[in-house]
Amino acid sequence: MQIGVFAKTFPGREPAGVLAAVRDAGFAVTQFNLACAGLPSMPDAVPDDAISAIAAASNAFGIALVALSGTYNMAHPDRTVRDDGLRRLGVMIKAAADLSVPLVTLCTGTRNADDQWAYHHDNADPEAWDDMASEVEKALDLAERHGVDLGIEPEQANIVTSASDAMRLIAEMDSKRLRIVLDPANLFEQASPDEARAIVAAAVETTAGHVAMAHAKDRFADGRFATAGQGVVNFPDFVARLKVSGFDGALVTHGLSADEAPGVARFLKGLT
Length: 272
Prior knowledge:
By secondary structure, this protein is of the alpha/beta class. The chain is 41% helix and 15% strand. The radius of gyration is 18 Å and the shape is globular. The model has no long low-confidence stretch (mean pLDDT 98).
């Protein structure tokens, strides 16, 4: 299991500086965001010189790019907004292929028009699921064309809220290109340590064989997000269960400050 971090944890708009910081904090891999290359996170185009700079920095500092963030609101209530997001996702998928990045991460979205990570009461409507699934189907066509996998993440504020939702979508899409990003802190909102452990354990079992990447974020019992190791998520149990399930990919932390990163790297390495 490789230990990684979101590149955006570290300040900077030059790939070399950001990936040097990733290395110096003790990580071997990263989930990259094009904002770290001086571009919008979901740009209209990725210039060739940006691809070259990212690849050169990855090679120079020995940091593997295990995923590229390609999130837009796949359930936005405005079809034109979804269409624009899909167009930009196509740009991201091509960039991932150019960089030999195996995974592009998605956001299954929300009916909240202002924030793709915010809950909306219409999220449970069948129409919201259908709009999201239609976007994923189109995205998979692009992914197949470029030989890149797509990762959906169960998230309480989005359409796919649980491990079972993720497996339902995979079954509906019937594509080996659709994978799961499993973040234990996104599987619940408020829970005791025992409740959190049970929820996370069930999710690992449900998604076994379909997880492309795991995330390492935490929550306090009152629902606030926390740095990995500081909340109610039992990370030793989570990592042990991932191993038993056959997962040997990247465990990527986020939701932390740059100053906290070296300590989290040591904590996670100690579990693997």
